[in-house]
User: Which sequence fits this backbone?
């Protein structure tokens, strides 16, 4: 298999995926903007060849790189970045070179939140009521029906960038006065609840080969807006209701041979499970490693086996709850790093700084830890993030 890995060096987890592809026998061909000498030596060894470009936005240069690889190695079998930001580039290159996977004529359904909702409805899973391209008059009618607060976010994009919780008329007027005119927004009803994810691997035949689930008690929108610290927990099981909804969504999108990350609200008001977003990529913020620690697996290897060989064995069972708790440099915490290390002991599995581009949502540095019970992990979160 000739696998072109677009941006194999960033984010950091991409290196692990590229290495596992090489270990499974794929010819891994990298395209990136980093100097070759700056790449992780393990990644250098995994890449058969690396084509450096000055800009990842220069699609003409990317096309030339793929042409070079085709001439030298033969037909390209896959082109992937495993990155939300590059989904459209991935799809256009696959279309141009007739590479297996999502093509340019479908990718908007995976990028635009308004188009996702048609598939959610087809899946039979409840979805958030929304208004596309809100203007003052249509927004007033939407709010009259649904009430304040409402959420306004870009129709195209990922994460919580430019996402606002609007609580009253004054905040709504301010949004319309300051909104960027070159960005299309959607307005959604506000759901008070937690986020449960459905994460895993689906093969070329549409068979789910692995599944896991994370719980977010915090709103990412609020974390980003308040510049707050973040925590989440990888569960040791997938709730049957989450699994049923997730599999229905996968069928509606007809997703094949992907790492998937589906976000669902669990309403505090009535317990409803409500589809929020679908992401056809690995989850971020150390969640792939959370899965590894909860299930005692190497999910990077499971993915590579699925892509190269079409399968990855029997799905493993979960053994632990794995927590992630970040810290912000601007905050003053009750316990020092050394105290945390001593307190958590063998439960602590990772501590590291967060890449600056992700720090607003994911924190400046973070701890990862696991235990047999949810209460134990919640106690560790509280200890790490207790403020003075």
Assistant:
């Amino acid at each position: 298999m000739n696998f072109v890995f677009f941006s194999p060096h960033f984010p950091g987890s991409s290196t692990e995926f590229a290495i596992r592809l090489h270990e499974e026998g794929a010819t891994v061909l990298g395209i990136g903007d980093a100097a070759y000498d700056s790449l992780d030596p393990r990644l250098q060894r995994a890449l058969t060849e690396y084509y450096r470009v000055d800009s990842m936005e220069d699609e003409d240069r990317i096309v030339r790189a793929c042409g070079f690889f085709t001439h030298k190695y033969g037909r390209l079998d896959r082109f992937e970045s495993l990155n939300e930001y590059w989904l459209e580039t991935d799809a256009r290159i696959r279309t141009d070179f007739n590479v297996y996977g999502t093509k340019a004529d479908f990718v908007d359904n995976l990028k635009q939140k308004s188009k996702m909702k048609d598939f959610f409805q087809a899946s039979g899973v409840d979805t958030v009521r929304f208004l596309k391209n809100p203007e003052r008059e249509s927004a007033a009618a939407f709010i009259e029906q649904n009430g304040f607060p409402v959420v306004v976010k870009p129709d195209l994009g990922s994460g919580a960038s430019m996402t606002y919780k609007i609580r009253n008329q004054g905040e709504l007027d301010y949004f319309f006065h300051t909104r960027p005119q070159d960005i299309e927004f959607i307005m959604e009803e506000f759901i008070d609840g937690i986020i449960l994810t459905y994460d895993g691997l689906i093969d070329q035949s549409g068979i789910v080969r692995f599944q896991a689930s994370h719980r977010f008690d915090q709103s990412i929108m609020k974390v980003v807006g308040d510049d707050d610290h973040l925590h989440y927990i990888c569960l040791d099981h997938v709730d049957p209701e989450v699994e049923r909804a997730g599999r229905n969504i996968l069928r509606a999108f007809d997703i094949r041979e992907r790492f998937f990350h589906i976000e669902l609200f669990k309403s505090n008001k009535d317990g409803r499970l409500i589809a929020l977003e679908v992401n056809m990529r690995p989850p971020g913020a150390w969640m792939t490693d959370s899965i590894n620690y909860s299930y005692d697996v190497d999910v990077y290897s499971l993915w590579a086996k699925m892509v190269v060989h079409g399968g990855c064995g029997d799905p493993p069972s979960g053994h632990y709850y794995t927590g992630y708790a970040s810290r912000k440099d601007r905050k003053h915490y009750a316990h020092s790093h050394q105290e945390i290390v001593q307190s958590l002991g063998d439960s602590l599995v990772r501590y590291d700084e967060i890449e600056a581009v992700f720090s607003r949502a994911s924190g400046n540095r973070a701890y990862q830890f696991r235990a047999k019970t949810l209460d134990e992990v919640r106690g560790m979160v509280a200890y790490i993030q207790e403020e003075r």
Summary: The radius of gyration is 21 Å.
